[in-house]
Amino acid sequence: MPLKENEMLIKEINPYFELEDISILIRNINNHFDKIYELGESSENGTEKRIEIVTKQSIELFEKVFEDKDENIVLAIFEFPDPNPFQASNSYLYTQIKEFSNIRKIEKKEFNIHILDLKLKDINYKNILNSIANTEMGFEPALSQIIYFFSNVSPKAFGMLDDRSCKINGI
Description:
This protein is an alpha+beta fold.
């Protein structure tokens, strides 16, 4: 079954998936976000306390963007070959997703893109956000992928690359 393309943001960023240069691709996608929130306040880098604060903040912001757990969303996952610089595995993310029936894979030279169309309730986003915060800190679980969450029906979107900030549309 083909993926439904979001009439808003997904349709706009879809052409970027053809790019081979990951830095240009990510920069182009990030240009579509209208707000950036700093995370972690002034908490000390590399501490469990920072991870706790960042995880709490990112979950609160995510839930402001995506209030309806039955909402259809699109996950755009940028996956790099193992091992990565932070020694995080590609496998953890897939244990946090319940539904894989509607996936499109785009293979690139240096990375792959997986695009999933599913309901928000089929994703353990709290664990995913925590693992993103953990990655550069050396804590487990950690992710090696870059992940964006897009609404399938509105311009709402959420992206978090590390423990420093997240990008948001829709609030």
